[in-house]
Structure formats: structure tokens, C-alpha cells
UniProtKB/TrEMBL annotation:
<dbReference type="Pfam" id="PF02637">
    <property type="entry name" value="GatB_Yqey"/>
</dbReference>
<dbReference type="GO" id="GO:0006412">
    <property type="term" value="P:translation"/>
</dbReference>
<comment type="subunit">
    <text>Heterotrimer of A, B and C subunits.</text>
</comment>
<dbReference type="GO" id="GO:0016740">
    <property type="term" value="F:transferase activity"/>
</dbReference>
<dbReference type="InterPro" id="IPR018027">
    <property type="entry name" value="Asn/Gln_amidotransferase"/>
</dbReference>
<dbReference type="InterPro" id="IPR017959">
    <property type="entry name" value="Asn/Gln-tRNA_amidoTrfase_suB/E"/>
</dbReference>
<dbReference type="InterPro" id="IPR017958">
    <property type="entry name" value="Gln-tRNA_amidoTrfase_suB_CS"/>
</dbReference>
<keyword id="KW-0067">ATP-binding</keyword>
<comment type="similarity">
    <text>Belongs to the GatB/GatE family. GatB subfamily.</text>
</comment>
<feature type="domain" description="Asn/Gln amidotransferase">
    <location>
        <begin position="348"/>
        <end position="495"/>
    </location>
</feature>
<dbReference type="GO" id="GO:0050567">
    <property type="term" value="F:glutaminyl-tRNA synthase (glutamine-hydrolyzing) activity"/>
</dbReference>
<dbReference type="InterPro" id="IPR003789">
    <property type="entry name" value="Asn/Gln_tRNA_amidoTrase-B-like"/>
</dbReference>
<dbReference type="InterPro" id="IPR023168">
    <property type="entry name" value="GatB_Yqey_C_2"/>
</dbReference>
<keyword id="KW-0808">Transferase</keyword>
<keyword id="KW-0648">Protein biosynthesis</keyword>
<protein>
    <recommendedName>
        <fullName>Aspartyl/glutamyl-tRNA(Asn/Gln) amidotransferase subunit B</fullName>
        <ecNumber>6.3.5.-</ecNumber>
    </recommendedName>
</protein>
<dbReference type="GO" id="GO:0005524">
    <property type="term" value="F:ATP binding"/>
</dbReference>
Amino acid sequence: MTTLVPYDEALARYEPVLGIETHIELGTRSKMFCGCSTTFGAPPNTQVCPVCLGLPGALPVTNRSAIEGIIKIGLALNCSIVEWCRFARKNYFYPDMPKNFQISQYDEPLCVDGHLDVEVDGRTYRVEIERVHMEEDTGKSLHVGGATGRIHGADYSLVDYNRAGIPLVEIVTKPIPDTGVAAPLVARAYATELRELVRSLGVSDVRMEQGSMRCDVNVSLMPSGSTVWGTRSETKNVNSLRSVERSVRHEIERQAAVLDAGERVVQETRHFQEDSGTTTSGRSKEEAQDYRYFPEPDLVPMAPSREWVKELLGGLPELPAARRVRVRDEWAVSEKEFQDIVNAGALDLIEETVQAGADAPAARKWWMNELSRRATEQGVELTELPVTPADVVRVSLLVAEGTINDKLARQVFDGVLAGEGTPDEVVEKRGLKVVSDDGELSSVIDEVIAGNPEVADKIRGGKVAAAGALVGAVMKATRGQADAGRARELIIEKLTG
């Protein structure tokens, strides 16, 4: 195994150049060229037909909803939508592509020359988009046996063709230079922003864990001061935002070691290993001519009318960048605080909580403090916690009306996270309501005063600030359930009245 060069050392001698190819499955009800269902998780090979299986005589028909979806993506990425384009056959043999060719687009893509701006550490990077084109997804291979889940060492392989033919949009960036030490963060920021943008359009769920968004990450290095780009590697099917960042970092360290040793970086595909954060060699990377592209003879060219494109442009929703500006202004938070919210993946959750009835400061407090801490402790994304915006709204209201306090609210979240029910059910089951009844509080206060005579004497002597110590004792005695404000009032009344 190649000894890696430490990241900072690698960047002192080499300049990275990035490129990212992103595949996004569209959320259409039927496949790209046939009427088969696209429902995720169906039993293997139950959503297939002669068209997506490539049987002789079966002819494809283009899915209009899919074309509408890709045009929306192209427009949101500031692309030009061409007036005429066509599909091509991309020929290769893979067992998960039953036709032995893929219907794609080659030299005539539907959307070209766009860009997406991303921000990293206060600097804006413009990622230029070369093309956005439409194709069909492949099936899925399952290699059974062996230690890696890959074909090498497997006992046998199974193929599920349910995914074959699902509409797949490929978004290809132009080379991204001048990222320096921020390269891994820029790659992650781009993938994050692209996912949010596509989700806002409503054309895909972009769930990376289910494969509806996958990134192929290209990295090359060139010596500092050089203008000749190095040979790139392509890490295939990276399926999480964190892994996009880690794969870039590892490839920089690996390629720097290869170049330092006087060896040549091989142009190849590589696989990212989640457990180790490293990449391993896949296969040599094909060039375009290896696929023997030629125009698809069974499909007519596409010529989206300018009126249709204009209509789709006018119907685009508020895009993430504009939404962030609006929300930041509405919440009146600093740039740093807002960036912390975005980085924590809490923006959607907080906004949904506010829309459901909580005030913005309370929503931010619970998601960014208590719940963010829980997510970090459990090693999961904030969105993966079994707490909903509605739960946070209810906890906020319970605190506001005095039924519970902040300390008890944390116990309520404990119960919700443990699956004990809604916030109200947890309050009832755990007996977490604030004790505000004067009679019940009075008896506890009498015991606390009797147990702390020196503090009580100070209060009697006029040092009212000392009441805080007795309030703390009351809170401890009631397991945090006393109404602290009312307890303080009663203590002072008893000792100075």
C-alpha cells in the first residue's frame, strides 16, 4: 500500500483540480422509456417489461415528465436549454444493463454552460457546469459471499433490473481549479448545494443512502506553479456528503505520494471505502471512443419549445440561495450563526418548526443546542433523530405556558428520542410537570430552610441574593420540577415577610 503524504505537505507542493459528475434519479412515477413503476424497494425484478429489459422488437417512448424535470434542473443551474438535441447509444457490456447499451446523450446534451456558486469559509467559489444531460439508470448487481461485497471473491452474483430504465440526470462540472487547501470542503459544499437545489425543485428526493444521488469525484494534481493539469482519477458512486469530502482528501494524499515517488498517476476509476476513508483501484477509465456512441435510431430528436422553457422558468420555486438570504433576514441572525445553522443541517428543520408555530429563537435554541448535541453524540445527522418539528413546537409551547421548564424539557426530549411517545405523553408518563402549587412548594421550602440555617439567616439579614442557593436546593429536592420563580418569591416571603 502507498504511504500517504500528509495533507498539508501535499498541498504545499501540488495544486488540486477537481471535477464532479453527479447522477440524480428523477422521482417520476414511470421509467424513462416505458411505463414500469419506479417505486423504491419493490421485490427484485418485479418492475420490468420488454422495453427496459431490451427484448427484441420493444421500442422506447420518451417520458415527458422526465424531460420537464431535467429542464428545471438546467434552468436552476443557470444553463442554456438547447433548441434541438437527441439521444445516443452508449455501448458497453455490463450484466446490470440488459440491452448491452445505455440510452444517453453524447455530443448533444439538453442543458449546457451553467454554474452554481458555493461558499466555503467566507469565500465564494463558482463551479461551472459543462452539461446536464438525460440518460437511463442501470440495474443493480448484488455480489454474494466474500468479504468486500464486490465481485472479486464473491461466490455468485444476482441482478435486479427494477432500477434499469429509471430517468437519470447527469450533471458534469467543468474542471474546478484554484481551490487549494479548501478542495475537499469545496467538493462537499458543491454536492450539498446541488442536493438542496434539486430537492427544492421537487424533481427528486436526492436520497444518497438509497442511491437516488451519486457522485463520481475526479481529482488530479499538478506541481505548484505549473499550468499543465495532472492525470485524474475518478472515484465512483460516492454516496454521502461526508464521503465526497473524505475521498478528495485521500486522493490528494495518495496522488502526492505517487508523484513524490517519481511514478505516474494512472487514469482509472476507484472505489471509496467507508470504513477506512481510502480509495481502492477499480478499472482503467474508458475514453468516449470506447463506448462507440451513435445516434439512438428508435427515438426522435428533442426540440423543447421556447414557450415551454419560459413557462418552466417562471414556475421555478424559491431556490436555496435566495431562500437563505430571506430566512437570515427574517430571523435577524448574524452571518456566522446562520452559517452554523446551515453547516449543522438544521435550516430546514428550524424553518419547518417556525412554520408549525414555534418562535424562531426557541426553534433555533432546541435544534442547535440540545438536539444538535444529541446527534453528535450518536454520530448521526440531525435529520436522522426521531424528533419532528412538531415535537419541538410542542416542547416550546409547554415551556412557554409554564408546564415544564428548560431542564424538564431536556428530559422530555430524552423520552421522545427513546420512543416513549409524544412530548405530552412523556410528560405524563414521567411526571415532569413543574411544581407550582404553593402548598406543595411551601412544604419543600420549609425543609430546605431548616436544612440551611446559615443561608436563611443571611436572607433574614437583608442579603436577598443568597436566596439563589435555597432555590437551587428546592430545584434539587423536586428533581428540577419546581417553578423556580415562584419558589424564590415564597422563600423571600417566609424569611423577610
